[in-house]
Amino acid sequence: MRIGRRPPRRISVVVPVFDVEAYLDECLDSLLASTYPDVEVVVVDDGSTDGSGAIADERAARDARVRVVHTTNRGLGAARNEGLRHTTGELVTFADSDDVVPPTAHAVLQRQLTGSGCDFVTGSIAWWRPDAEDPRQVLVQPPWMRRLHRTRAALVLEQEPEILGDVFAWNKLFTRAFWDGAGLSWLEGHRYEDQPTTTRAFLRARRFGIVPDVVYHWRIRSDGTSITQQRGSLADLEDRWLTKRLTASSVADHGSPKVSKVFRDKVLPGDLHRYFVQIPTADDAWYALLEAGVQELFAGRSLVHSGLPPVHRLTGWLVEQGRRADAAHVMTYLAGLAPGERVPRVDDPRGWRIDVPGLDAATVDVAALRLHDHET
């Protein structure tokens, strides 16, 4: 008696939707063009006030692979959690409704997941600027994501702890058994809900897979309306500190000195430079919150040891020391440099360091000015 091949495991894609009528069709088109043979798309209309819900309903009426759930507005994390309750696949992934997924992405991720016996697999991403005048800027793979996904592998976290910097929800494919068994869910009611959950996934996986392929195109909106483009608001910074605290707590509980050190130096500070640029124009309440968070989270190990760029390490040290005016000066100076222009370098008896005009280097810890070997 001939035994037939097992049918492919269904991949369920959860798509949270809120007021994205300009982008939703393009997102759904990309998901339904997947080369993987069994894809289910669960759209969660999170109380949209535009035509997004109707667009989703119309697509579901035409394509049985699409299901739509309508809810009151509760935010991105809650919408993803709700969508998971309506999926039927053995494998689950996520997509944001203004982005697109390359057609082979699901097949690439599933192949690595099945072949390696991992609990989940993660791939690289590209920033997507569809309106860019320079065709070379339409799709750009961030160098740090290329580095984290430089090979095809199955790993445990201690082998590659810097992978904790891959904090995104939507470039990963999970087995539903692992997701449920690890007790994973998305943080609700706050921005940056990805990081605490993806961190727990890496910490709890027996093994996770990596592929070098770009499996997701992340739209960078030119109108500045996306969540990640609102860093100057107090609410945004409060949510950022919350997610960092939650993530740091999970890593500490994991109990691996190697993972903890890499996390503290290379992952936890990873996006702070995007906040430091706000310092010159920040109001008092925002800056006070920034300073308090930096002093709290990096009290045991200064940002001078971090993987931030040199000028941002210096700025982090100035914030740690409560030197707001100097931090604002450094960031203002940096903003005034021409594209490709570097902060001046000085070779003194203690080694190469940066030299910001207008900042008295004698008042700064040399560790905050020193350049690493690859930065000279």
Describe this structure in words.
- The chain has 376 residues and is α/β, with parallel strands linked by helices.
- It folds into two domains: 11-229, Spore Coat Polysaccharide Biosynthesis Protein SpsA, Chain A (Alpha-Beta Complex); 269-375, no CATH class.
- The chain has 14 helices and eleven strands.
- The protein has helices at 24-32, 52-62, 76-84, 105-116, 143-148, 176-181, 194-204, 234-254, 257-267, 272-276, 284-297, 310-320, 324-335, 366-369; strands at 11-17, 39-46, 66-71, 91-94, 120-128, 139-140, 153-155, 172-175, 208-219, 345-348, 351-354.
- The strands form two sheets. Strands 1, 2, 3, 4, 5, 6, 7, 8 and 9 form a nine-stranded mixed sheet that branches. A two-stranded antiparallel sheet has the order 10-11.
- Helix 7 (194-204) packs parallel to helix 8, helix 8 packs antiparallel against helix 9 and helix 12 runs antiparallel to helix 13 (324-335).
- The longest helix has 21 residues, at 234-254.
- The termini are far apart.
Main attributes of the structure:
single chain, 376 residues, alpha/beta, Spore Coat Polysaccharide Biosynthesis Protein SpsA, Chain A, 2 domains, nine-stranded mixed beta sheet, two-stranded antiparallel sheet, 14 helices
